[in-house]
Prior knowledge:
alpha/beta; Rossmann fold; about 55% helix
Amino acid sequence: xxxxxxxxxxxxxxxxxxxxxxxxxLCCHPRIAIAxxxxxxxxxxxxxxxxxxxxxxxFELFWxxxxxxxxxxxxxxxxxxxxARIDSAPERSWKAVxxxxxxxxxxxxxxxxxxxxTPRHADFMRDLLDWYPExxxxxxxxxxxxxxxxxxxxxxxxxxxxxxxxxxxxxxSAVALQALAAGGRVFVAxxxxxxxxxxxxxxxxxxxxxEDFHPEMITRSRAGEYRLYPDDPxxxxxxxxxxxxxxxxxxxxxxxxxxxxxxFIEHEAGASMTDFGYERVTGGLNARQRLALGCHKALFPLExxxxxxxxxxxxxxxxxxxxxxxx
Length: 327
C-alpha cells in the first residue's frame, strides 16, 4: 500500500470511545501525525457547504470565518501558512482546505504521514473514502452502555439526556461499520482491547495502515506535544489520555447507570450489540419501561430543537446566505 498523501489515516467513532487515546498513540509513531478534531465534514461543511470554494467571493466569505475561529491556533497552526498551502493546491475545494490543515499539522510535527481524528466523521466515512480511495479508517468501538454512561457524566451542552438517543446513534454507526468493514479500508479497534492488550491491537493497527510498530505508541512519553494548544504548557493539565492505561473504566457503567437506563440502551442498540460481542444483562423492556421510553422519544425532538447551536448556524449558513447577495 502506498503511504503518500493519498493514503491518510482517519480515526473515527462515537464520542467517549477512545478516539483521543488512539490519536495520541498514533501521533507517538515517528512517521504519523493525526490532527485533532477539525469537525470539518460534520460542522464546517454543514454550515458553509452551500458556498463554492472555487468562487473567490464564496471562499473569502468562508475563510473570513474559518481563519478567525479557534481551530487553527488550537492546533498550533498559523492561518496565513494554511491559506498559502490552500492557494498552492491544484484546485480550491473543500477537500483541499481539509487536506491543507492536516498536512500543515503533520509538517509542524515533522511527520511524513498525515491523518485526522474527528469522532463525528464516523457519519462521513464514505465521503472520506471517496476523497481518498487509499485512505485507512480506524473505527474505535466501545460498549454502548459505557459510551452512554460516559457521555451522560460529561453533561455536554449539546448532548442528549436520554440514553436511548446515544444507543440509537451507536446502533446506526455499528450498522454503517458492518457495511464498510468488509471492504478492507476500515479497521475495527475495540476500546476494551486497547486498554487490556494495547501492544497486540496497535501491532494490528500498524499492519493495517502499512507502518512498523513502535513501543513509543504505548508509553506515549511525548504525547504532550500533540495536545491542543501545544505551545501552552498549561494545556497538559488533567489530560487522562496522557496517563497510564487503566481498564477500570470498562465496567463503570454497571454502577453509574440505572437499571432502566441499561434496559433502554440494550433495547435501542439491538442485535448490533451481540454482533460485536457485547452481552446484554437485561431481558427486554417491561410495560412501565416501554411507556417511559415512549415518553423520552416524544420529548427528544423538543430537546433537539432547544440544544441546536442557533447562534453558530446563523453565523454560518444563515449569515453567509444573506451576505452572498451583497458581495
